[in-house]
Design brief:
It is a single chain. The protein is mainly beta and 624 residues long. The protein is 6% helix and 57% strand. The protein has one domain (2-473): Maltoporin, Chain A. It contains five helices and 34 strands. Strand 23 (442-454) and strand 24 (458-476) form a beta hairpin. The chain is globular, with a radius of gyration of 24 Å. 46% of the residues are buried. Residues 59-156 form the TonB-dependent receptor plug domain. InterPro entries: Beta-barrel_TonB (IPR000531), Beta-barrel_TonB_sf (IPR036942), Plug_dom (IPR012910), Plug_dom_sf (IPR037066), TonB-dep_rcpt-like (IPR039426).
Length: 624
């Protein structure tokens, strides 16, 4: 019934929207998050005009990232349609991201096209990725395993660093704010001209904060934590790319990304010590882009990614080192206006951990995928199929089919159906006295329908979806192997239905944007709403922008949530922020951001404090 009601509401909205839009042409439009019709790569693995993308997506552009000030990557994602987060404190604390109600580990993270996940936990280290060296971000919702394999059940978040193109550009910024927060970054990028073009980019950042006390008064274990010392962090990062087009249509290059987050946290102990959680995230890739014929493009890439976690306490130094070697050959063949895509990939994942009694394992996945993208006048179509053959585990086959139709050049609908999977992590499979090697993959089946209307005056998108996830892996104290007190087990199923709405209006110097998500993320084995997820959440923002200045206000709202096992009630909240920038001289800009201006007390994980009212100001240089 919930699924039918969502689709019925969409049908009614379609009729109403068509009538309203026929009368509306006096205001100018912009996408809810950035420029009109950006180029989206992640939804198809190829550059595609946003207007032709059939998957549900959010694009976060360079301007929005520059306006984020002291906000972390996770805090910026919290302000987007379809995204919820949890956090155990401030910007440097362990965090999770939920796309359209799915678990955090069911989101695949790519950095410049390279996987960035812990092979041990199966989740990304969100807190280790600095926002200030990111150029733009693409969020693709729904199962994308037919393009990317394991983990992409809830969707994919791809982070892009700067790519050099055109005359040399130099930029730098520095700022200071509440909680002793300081952030500085610098970048240089561009390309040579003429034959054998060289493209280059280099960015670096350093930030730190004294922080605040993260243990809330309602924390049930408060007596075992240090509640007087503040918990700070340091975060550093760098990214670089270098390539040469050695012949027309032939490019050879390399790319590097490396970051470290060192966050303090209170250790659960009667002696109440302070620990340091260190996360190192890095990706490296060599690539060759080749235009073999007029209709055949090839990308050959050898990549490696690391996720190293280290928990330092006065009595322990547990280290977990995850590594993935990924070999990819992608071929894009144009057939008229259509595109055929063939991908072969080999991934060798390994983990070494000194935690507990230790863990050392490796695993190989061989993958083959094919996709067809169709474009015929008012019709769009995508179909994709992928097989992932995992060592000692067997093949996993996923697919996706999507169709879109333009009623007018501005008004489009689409229907999507896709399947996804998440293979068990090394921890779930092999950790001593907990892992179970016979675990099944988590699997999903997702269907959705969407409406999109966009002119120079107005932009709105409405998506109804239903995602069924089976074989959820959870902690269990029953049905475990002999000698286990608890274990990982495929004990749960989830059903997530929802409606996601986003849009924007612009008139002259003013713009207004907003989003609203109504969802029902249910654990079908218990009947409870999934932990740390709300049934309703949304965002609203307005901005006044001229050629030399911009001033904006925004709000994030979320209904009540529960922590694990339907306990740990967290009330709903609304937080509001202000931001602005002013170009006071050629290439020089003053900027500032005031987050949580009303000092709202709220929680994103039960028993943990979040930042109160906090201010950040700085100066930026950007060569124009």
């Amino acid at each position: 019934m919930a699924k039918l009601s969502v689709f019925a509401l969409l049908a009614a909205t379609l009729i109403h929207t068509q009538a309203v839009m026929a009368q509306s042409s006096s205001v100018s439009v912009v996408n809810a998050n950035s420029s009109i019709d950006p180029v989206i790569v992640t939804a198809t693995r190829t550059p595609t005009r946003a207007n032709d993308v059939l998957a549900d997506y959010v694009y976060i552009g360079p301007e929005e990232i520059a306006d984020a000030g002291q906000s972390s990557l996770v805090q910026l994602l919290q302000r987007q349609r379809g995204v919820e987060i949890s956090s155990n404190g401030g910007s440097g604390a362990i965090a999770s991201v939920f796309l359209r109600g799915a678990n955090s580990g069911q989101t695949l993270v790519l950095i410049d096209g390279v996987r960035s996940q812990s092979t041990n936990s199966g989740s990304p280290s969100w807190q280790a990725i600095p926002l200030s060296i990111i150029d733009h971000i693409e969020i693709i919702f729904g199962p994308q395993s037919s393009l990317y394999g394991s983990d992409a059940i809830g969707g994919v978040v791809q982070i892009f660093t700067k790519t050099g193109e055109g005359p040399i550009q130099v930029g730098a910024s520095t700022g200071y704010g509440t909680y002793g927060t300081s952030i500085s970054d610098a970048s240089i990028y561009g390309s040579t001209s003429g034959d054998q073009k060289i493209r280059y980019s280099l960015s670096a950042t350093a930030e730190n904060a004294a922080g605040f006390n993260t243990i809330a008064t309602n924390n049930s274990s408060r007596s075992f934590y240090n509640t007087t010392q503040i918990m700070g962090y340091t975060r550093t990062g760098a990214a670089g790319k270098l390539s040469q087009e050695w012949s027309k249509g032939q490019e050879l290059g390399l790319q590097v990304f490396a970051s470290r987050n060192n966050g303090q946290y209170p250790v659960f102990s009667s002696s109440k010590p302070i620990g340091n959680q260190i996360n190192d995230v890095s990706t490296y890739a060599l690539f060759s882009k080749n235009q073999f014929t007029d209709n055949w493009k090839s990308l050959l890439q050898i990549a490696q990614s690391y996720d190293l976690g280290q928990a330092l306490t006065p009595t322990s130094n547990a280290v977990t080192n995850s590594r993935q070697n990924i070999y990819t050959w992608q071929n894009d063949i144009t057939v008229g206006k259509d595109l055929v895509q063939l991908v072969a990939e080999r991934k060798i994942a390994s983990v070494y951990s000194t935690s507990g009694s230790g863990l050392s394992r490796d695993q190989t996945t061989n993958s083959f995928a094919g996709a067809y993208q169709l474009k015929r006048e008012s019709h769009l179509g995508n179909i994709s199929l992928r097989s992932d053959n995992i060592t000692d585990y067997g093949p996993q086959t996923t697919g996706n089919i999507a169709y879109g139709y333009f009623f007018t050049k501005q008004f489009r609908t689409n229907i999507n159906y896709g399947t996804g999977f998440k293979a068990p992590s090394f921890y779930d499979l092999y950790y001593p006295n907990y892992g179970v090697s016979t675990l099944k993959s988590e699997k999903s089946k997702n269907s959705e329908i969407g409406l999109h209307y966009e002119t120079k005056a107005f932009d709105i998108r409405i998506i109804g979806y239903s995602n069924t996830i089976s074989n959820l892996i959870q902690y269990s104290s029953s049905g475990c192997p002999t000698g286990y007190s608890s274990c990982a087990s495929n004990v749960a199923n989830a059903k997530i239905t929802g409606l996601s709405i986003g849009g924007a209006i612009r008139s002259g110097y003013f713009s207004l944007r907003g989003s609203f998500d109504q969802q029902n993320p249910i654990d079908e084995s218990t009947g409870f709403v999934l932990a740390k997820r709300a049934r309703q959440f949304g965002n609203i923002g307005t901005e006044y922008k001229t050629s030399k200045s911009a001033f904006g206000a925004e709000g994030t709202l979320q209904a009540n949530r529960n922590d694990f096992s339907n306990t740990g009630y967290m009330g709903g909240y609304a937080i509001y922020n202000l931001y602005g920038n002013y170009e006071f001289a050629k290439d020089w800009t003053l900027f500032g951001r005031w987050n949580n201006i009303f000092n709202k007390d709220y929680q994103l994980s039960y028993g943990y404090n979040t930042p109160g009212s906090n201010l950040f100001v700085g100066v930026r240089y950007a060569m124009k």
